[in-house]
């Protein structure tokens, strides 16, 4: 029997048991892919990150849901870098390169009063229009079709991981949402493995710009992601592409998420115009919760 130590951090919050839980495992170089998947399944978080050495970056990260590997995970990246920095494993480095299946990303660490603020670059934004049934999409989320905004497009979006961005008219609709994740592949025929990310321009917190929930792909083994880094990043890109194309660069947005599941968290998104493209960064903090062993 082998035991692997898992460090539990909550990302996008400074309060334990808020934000989004992530497992961080430092033994990645000594684990098989099957072992990583089994550990992630036993941990049960939306994502567990495994830290490995890299020939092309400072570190390499692999991300696993209980059901499969992900190309990129924002909150688990933030938790991993926060953990490594807190334990002194990154030395005095403030600029860190991270190898992922979505490419090599740059992470900036700012430290003040022993608290680390993590900013990570996102992959180049991509969008694909949704041409499926709005009625079936609404049913899969447990709401009515008229809860979906008529004047903003429903699109698949990615800054490293594909999700379906669904604009919602009223924030009250989010409390009524009861996702049927098993129905998603029949609705998302173009990208059946994608998640669904409803969002709204109305917020609970007056200091926030957008509100969201995130419903997992049925293949991930989870139902909902409390506070989602990569989806928040692509929400910033969506704002620049579909809400305010003439935005003043850099665009600063605060995304709130997790209120409906008692996991209140914040993701800060920066969108910078670069000629015909935009660059997207997300920023947040994390907090250590506990460590435990998983036996295989």
Low-pLDDT segments, ≥5 res: none
The CATH architecture of the largest domain:
Roll
Reported by name, the CATH topology of the largest domain is Diaminopimelate Epimerase, Chain A, domain 1
> Approximately what portion of the residues adopt beta-strand conformation?
35-45%
Overall SS class = alpha+beta
Name the helicity range: 10-25%
Distance from N terminus to C terminus (CA atoms, Å) equals: 6 Å
Question: Helical element count?
Answer: 6
Q: What would your notes on this structure say?
A:
The protein is an alpha+beta fold and 296 residues long. It folds into 2 domains: 3-121 and 284-295, Diaminopimelate Epimerase, Chain A, domain 1; 126-282, Diaminopimelate Epimerase, Chain A, domain 1 (Roll). Helix content is 19%, strand content 37%. It contains 6 helices and 17 strands. The protein has a 17-stranded mixed beta sheet that branches. 47% of the residues are buried. The mean pLDDT is 96.
Descriptors for this entry?
37% strand; alpha+beta; 17 strands; 17-stranded mixed β-sheet; 2 domains; Diaminopimelate Epimerase, Chain A, domain 1; 6 helices; globular
What is the structure about, briefly put?
This protein has helices at residues 33-43, 74-86, 134-141, 173-176, 184-187, 229-243, and strands spanning 3-11, 20-25, 47-52, 59-64, 69-70, 95-100, 103-112, 115-121, 126-129, 155-158, 162-167, 195-200, 210-212, 251-257, 265-274, 277-284, 286-295.
